[in-house]
Amino acid sequence: MMKRKVTFIMNPISGTTNKAGIPKLIEETLDKEAFDYEIRLTEYAGHATEIAHDAMMAGVDVVVAVGGDGTVNEVAKAIVHSNTALGIIPCGSGNGLARHLMLPMDIKKSIEIINQCAVHDLDYGLINNIPFFCTCGMGFDAFISMKFAMSGKRGPITYAENVLKEGLSYKPETYEIEDETGTKKYKAFLISCANASQYGNNAYIAPQASMSDGLLDVIIMEPFDVLEAPQISIDMFNKTLDKNSKIKTFKAKRIHVHREKPGCIHFDGDPVMTDADVDISLESKGIKMIVNLNADKSKRRPNMVQTAFAEFFNDVNAVREDITKQSRNIQAINKKLIRKLNKL
Asked: What are the tens digits of pLDDT across the range 161-209?
């Protein structure tokens, strides 16, 4: 049997993991009876895409992104609609795509997944013709991605600091979303389109998302107050965000979004400025990826306790909203009565 060719593409300075020991782990763990391999180090932004493209053109069977979602995106977009498969050794701060695929966060174990070389044809997305493989969006998550990129520091702590600092002061926008069924207008904190289920760090923005159903999961997070924010966070990490009353979701092959003004969007966490109109679509079975055959996919879904917890607190929030509305109605009636009394 002919050996497969594998190219490992590694940015030595990105992410939060020290990569100095990875070449030795590859040498010790990769099945050399099945693979010939090389390791290439990136030297500048976009270099990973160039290396991956050259590997694809040379007939390399697998290119492995050694890094986080940014490195994965750079590598993956070079090999879409080809016979070259993507492998991932997760070394980033979030590792959203790797976590959705249920790849081990342990580097040695992730190399063992590459040894299995189980390749599936999976979906990927386009936002204004920019490929994304996990999530894209606009609104607060894109705004925070821009802040995160400008901070010069990586890691979940920096991300959380930006969320807490900016979250309560962020002003929701109005969006017109057109899909196959028509056009609807929403006032939203964020609009997210998910090919995979999570942003990273097990924060599930789209718990029902699949990379093989040929559809995007569109998530609309409506404006919320300070009392509702903790439950939204809990639901995100409990995989129950789709049950939250502030969340509207639907599936679509493509959507067009018109917003009030130009602004930031993100693709796999990387921000970019665009005009007011945004086109998002799905490319079905457009990329080959190495998957984990031993993954327990049931772990992507909430357990009974998490579901019950989410339903209870959403019921509490629904009652609170109803009381608030009734209180406002009573206040409005009182004001009318006072005005009438003043006229007597």
From this structure: 445 455 566 889 999 999 999 999 999 999 999 999 999 889 899 999 9
Alpha carbons within 13 A on the beta-carbon side of 200: 26
- Summarised one tens digit per residue, pLDDT across range 262-311 is 999 999 989 999 999 999 999 999 999 999 999 887 776 655 444 444 45
Placement of tokens 């694809």 in the chain: 56
Q: Tokens 């590598």 label which residue?
A: 75
- In 3D space, the residue among 230, 239, 258, 260 whose CA is nearest the CA of residue 304 turns out to be 239
CA distance 31 to 116: 9
- Output the 3-class SS for 220-248: EECCCCCCCHHHHHHHHHHCCHHHCCCEE
Q: Is 343 exposed, middle or buried (0-12, 13-18, 19+ CB in 10 A)?
A: exposed
Which pair of tokens denotes residue 49?
């895409």
Which tokens is 137 given?
Answer: 């969006």
Residue-wise DSSP of 296-311: -GGGGS--HHHHHHHH
Positive or negative, the Cα torsion across 159, 165, 168, 173? Answer: negative
Q: What is the DSSP letter of 92?
A: S
Contact 289, 134 (CB under 8 A): no
Three-state DSSP at 209 gives coil
The two counts, helices (H) then strands (E), for the chain are: 9, 18
Which of these, 291, 156, 279, 145, lies nearest to 212 by C-alpha position? 291
Residue 165 DSSP SS3: helix
Q: CA–CA distance from 165 to each of 104, 106, 260 (Å)?
A: 32, 32, 24
In this structure, what token pair is assigned to residue 229? 């924010």
User: pTM value?
Assistant: 0.83
What does the block give as tokens for 106?
A: 């342990």
- SS3 state at 150: helix
